[in-house]
Amino acid sequence: MVQDKNYRRVGEGLSGLPTYTGEIVVRTRGENDVVDITDKVESYVARSGVKNGVAHLYVIGSTAALTTMEYEPGLIEDIRNAMERIAPRNAYYKHHERWGDDNGHSHIRASIIGPSLCIPIREGSLTTGTWQQLILLELDTRARERRILVTVIGD
Ligand code: ZN
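That is the input. Now the predicted structure with zinc ion docked in place:
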């Protein structure tokens, strides 16, 4: 489930440009959920009326990540498999001793991919390729509610 919340103009950015903020809230289905958020971000850009600027996205939390990819079933499976090779679930993590957690691999995967994206807006559209979608990766070991903060700046 993907919803959006509180999208509004909050004032002028650093150089006097209009700034809009909002949140995309995603209820993930558990570890390795890969969620396409492209349409939601595009609708925020459209509502802002910004023709040239940037859309910045940031997911709160240390066990989720944002990136871009071609959103098709083969690659979705490939990225899950790559995550397992990069930071195997059953490897030893000191994090588990500290908190009694089971998600050391989740943190490592999230740190490597990163929590944010910055996408140029040109002529009112995100400059993504035809086969390039914006995606949220749920890397934690359970379903979570994720908040993606969206900031659109431009004119
Ligand atoms: Zn943890």
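Residues 2-154 form a domain with the Jelly Rolls fold (CATH 2.60.120.460).
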